[in-house]
């Protein structure tokens, strides 16, 4: 699997250039980023949601659809310790396609609040560790 490397910035995601060329990702980092934060922010993840990413209508394979329940929950749920488990659960659901498609054997998600107005999602996919440190700004929006 080779993707263009996407990474989290303070104003959503970006690509990385080195020596004028795009940097590529041969892990599941970019696919994970898109699974958590791609799609439509208004899609709450239910099967009958009318707010799915428009591109989902073009693919039949469920694993290829962007649902991003994590993105939606982070927007609509207060940042407090009582909600950390919910953040972990939706992130696992968004990434579970890696297990279902036998691309990974191990998937663990941990959510924490490292500082005021920040949520840290730490994800372990086999031996790959991903960290998304998101700041709550403008009400319930994260970047």
Quickly list its features.
single chain; 143 residues; alpha+beta; 4-stranded antiparallel beta sheet; 4 helices; 10 strands; 23% helix; 29% strand
Short recap of the structure:
The chain is an alpha+beta fold and 143 residues long.
The tally of domains stands at 1
Alpha-carbon distance between the termini? 27 Å
Q: Tell me the β content.
A: 25-35%
What is the number of strand segments?
10
Largest sheet: 4 strands, antiparallel
Number of continuous helical runs: 4
Derived from helix and strand composition plus strand pairing, the structural class reads alpha+beta
* Major sheet: arrangement of strands: 7-8-9-10
What is the element string, with H for helices and E for strands?
Answer: EEEEEEHHHHEEEE
Mean pLDDT: 79
Helical fraction equals 10-25%
Assembly of the depicted chains: single chain
Please tell me how large the radius of gyration is. 15 Å
Q: Which term fits the overall shape?
A: globular
């Amino acid at each position: 699997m080779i993707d263009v490397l996407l990474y989290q910035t303070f104003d959503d995601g970006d690509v990385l250039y080195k020596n004028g060329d795009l940097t590529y990702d041969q892990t599941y980092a970019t696919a994970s980023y898109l699974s958590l934060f791609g799609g439509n922010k208004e899609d709450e993840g239910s099967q009958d949601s009318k707010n799915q990413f428009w591109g989902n209508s073009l693919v039949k394979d469920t694993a290829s659809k962007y649902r991003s329940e994590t993105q939606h929950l982070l927007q609509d749920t207060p940042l407090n310790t009582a909600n950390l488990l919910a953040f972990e659960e939706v992130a696992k659901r968004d990434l579970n396609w890696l297990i279902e498609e036998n691309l990974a054997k191990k998937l663990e998600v941990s959510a924490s609040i490292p500082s005021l107005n920040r949520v840290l999602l730490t994800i372990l996919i086999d031996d790959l560790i991903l960290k998304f440190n998101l700041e709550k700004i403008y009400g319930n929006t994260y970047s």
